Amino acid sequence: MEYKLGNFKKLRDIGETQSLTCPECESKVVFHVFSNVDNELQGAFPFIKTSRVYFMICPACAARFAVDEDKGEAFAAGEKLAIGNFDFKKLKSFKEND
Q1: How far apart are the C-alpha atoms of 10 and 5, rounded to whole Å?
Q2: pTM above 0.85, yes or no
């Protein structure tokens, strides 16, 4: 299964979080936060909806987690405590293998 991380080719490294506990491996690690742009076509004006996708990767087990856009924007603005242990989200499913 693949996961949707946005559809722009370039990923932007936002920075590192404080030490957080990974929900997958339960290790206390420092996550890297990345962002990407997700463009969607719509049937009404404006025809292209652009949003920023924020996600984190665990350095211990390589698990990937999404972050709400408002939390990611606050983190990118310099608020290092904007992302905490309760902000881990599942990534949206992009394509399933049959």
Answers
A1: 11
A2: no
CA torsion sign for 22, 27, 28, 29 is negative
* Tokens, residue 3: 């996961």
User: What pLDDT, in 10s, does the model give residues 75-85?
Assistant: 999 998 999 99
Structure tokens at 49: 């909806």
Strand ranges (DSSP E) for the chain?
2-3, 12-21, 28-41, 48-57, 64-67, 93-95
Which candidate, 49, 23, 30, places its Cα nearest to that of 38?
A: 49
Query: Residue 64 pairs with which residues in a beta bridge?
Result: 57
- pLDDT tens for 9-30 read 678 889 999 999 999 999 999 9
